[in-house]
Amino acid sequence: MEMKTTIIDANGFERTLTRLAHEILERNKGADSIAVVGIRTRGEYLARRLVAKIKMIEHRPIEMGVLDITLYRDDLRDMLQQPILKGTEIAFDVTGKDIILVDDVLYTGRTVRAALDELIDLGRPATIQLAVMADRGHRELPIKADFVGKNIPTTDREEVRVLMKETDGEDAIILASPKGGA
Amino acid sequence: MGLTGKHLLGLDGVSADDITQILDTADSFREVLERPIKKVPTLQGKTIVNLFFESSTRTRISFELAERRLSADVVNFSADASSVRKGETLKDTARNLEVMKIDMVVIRHAAAGAPHFLSRVLDAAVINAGDGAHEHPTQALLDMYTLRERLGKLKGVRVCIVGDISHSRVALSNIHGLRTMGAQVAVCGPATLIPRGLEELGVTVHTRIEEAIEASDVLNVLRIQLERQSGGLFPSLREYREFFAVTRDRLRRAGREILIMHPGPINRNVELSADVADAPDSVILQQVLNGVAVRMAILYLLGTRSS
Fold first, then answer.
1. Which residues are registered as beta bridge partners of B187?
2. B306 CA to chain A: closest CA distance, Å?
3. What is the C-alpha separation between B101 and B83, in angstroms, rounded?
């Protein structure tokens, strides 16, 4: 049994996305050099939403891609169920661009490490910057996010879940902890 | 997810779900083959042996490329320069390799059942790259992938395999795989080269190429082998061509586009006329490219199973 606490509700979610979009544009001085790449699965939907917001703010389209990091994971052999490959779709050249990598939750950092390796196999980006909705701590690799929706310190037994309309029917960030205390 | 079995020994008895999973996974690997760095680290540290007791250029190269693009360590064994000449049995050859801790074996052998035998004797995952006249599952899978890519589906597609059916492992694997996926399968060739009882597998038999062309959306044309001629199974290559070659004229009579496939290597102007081989409705080169992606998919699915 688990206890769920809503850290950010649907309105807060929207505002956070707006703030992230503005931060990204501020750091990169506009949208000229950036391209957004979402890490499947939820990172893809977040990326789409960010791209839509940036479009509204800057009145110009920006490139978007989707990364499936399954082939670059460091733990394939240990998984009980083989993950389904959905594929990477990046139709533009990453070389020279400032890539904004997007994912829902930053935890150990291993997913991002895999994403970095894959991106660099695709070309030579000018920079890779990381945007996440939630950072729950417990990094196992020296990875940090450049843009964070919410910092949510957690214990090992807790879980941070980013829910999205596209996959879960609602927008929220929740903290799930096993009943009986963390 | 993952495939049902630990090995890929044939398509007989392989479920539609497994076949679909292989084809879907191959899509991701096609994308990898379009990148500037056509390599992923997925099978790093895994050792794969290509045990080719029968010589083969294209299948072995295709497998080798697939293995290297997955970052696996590859060892090639070809029957000529080896202990087989000294009389070593298959079992001992395999045992020796296993003791050196290999993870997967890709085997092509003249004896039907050799891969099945290996799968009982080895711990490693075994992939059949052609066993005698029995099965050649990876070829059939790449054929189905190519069809699905070109036509958008497999169900209900009318495929006719043309040529020496009785000696063809490509034909048998295709028959099993296509039937499982709901395609309609027919064969066409001289009666001497068509095994009896195919109708029991749900396959229609045509003895005239014109008939086959009329009734098909796709022709998978097999290479006719000279050795069969000297065995008295047909009088001459010229006569074979006269009656069974897929030519532009014959195709034109169908009045619609018919997809032309061939596992290679082509005997130009024997089973296929040159203009047909090179035309836009021929997906022959596409098959070769897809072959690497499909083999990568199989190696990935079998190679990353949890122990």
1. B161, B205
2. 5
3. 19
* Exposure b/e, A143-182, CB count within 10 A at least 16 = b: bebebbbbebebeeebbbbbbbeeeeeebbbbbebeeeee
The tokens 């092509």 sit on which residue? B108
Contact residues of A toward B, CB < 8 A: 68, 71-72, 76-89, 117-118, 121-123
Query: φ, ψ for residue B77 (rounded to 5)?
Result: -125, 120
- Is some CB atom of chain A closer than 8 A to the CB atom of B37? yes
Q: To the nearest whole angstrom, how far is the Cα of A120 from the nearest Cα of chain B?
A: 9
What pLDDT is recorded for position B280? 80
**Nearest residue in chain A measured CA to CA from B34:** A122
Classify residue B125 as left (phi > 0), alpha (psi -120 to 50) or beta: beta
Mean pLDDT of B84-93: 78
Strands B104-109 and B125-131 come out as: parallel
Helix (H, G, I), strand (E, B) or coil at B39: coil
Tell me the CA distances in angstroms from A108 to A46, A133, A143, one per residue in order: 20, 15, 8
Q: For residue B184, give the nearest of B150, B143, B134, B218 by alpha carbon.
A: B218
Tokens of B293: 């992606």
Q: Which residues of chain A have pLDDT under 70?
A: 180-182
Are the beta carbons of B196 and B138 closer than 8 angstroms?
Answer: no
Q: pLDDT tens digit string along B219-278?
A: 999 998 776 666 778 888 888 899 999 999 999 998 899 999 999 888 888 899 988 988
CA A75 vs CA A85, A116, B26, B42, B299: distances in Å:
15, 16, 21, 10, 17
Which residue in this structure is represented by tokens 């991106």? A119
Instruction: Give the pLDDT of residue B277.
Output: 87
CA distance A91 to chain B (A): 10
DSSP 3-state helix, strand, coil percentages of chain A (rounded to 5)? 30, 30, 40
Question: DSSP labels for B232-288?
Answer: TSSS-HHHHHHHH-B-HHHHHTT-S--EEE--S---BTTTB-HHHHTSTTB-HHHHH
Task: Tell if the CB–CB gap between B28 and A82 is shorter than 8 Å.
Answer: no
Q: Are the Cβ atoms of A71 and B301 closer than 8 angstroms?
A: no
- State whether residue B100 sits within 8 Å of chain A by CB: no
Cα–Cα distance between B29 and B40 in angstroms, integer? 9
Q: Which residues in chain B are closer than 8 Å to A85, comparing Cβ atoms?
A: 24-25, 28, 300
Of residues A131, A137, A106, the one with CA closest to residue A27: A131
Q: Decide if B304 and A76 are in contact by the 8 Å CB cutoff.
A: yes
Q: What is the pLDDT of residue B81?
A: 61
Contacts with B6 from chain A: Cβ below 8 Å? none
Cβ of A87 within 8 Å of Cβ of B40? The answer is no
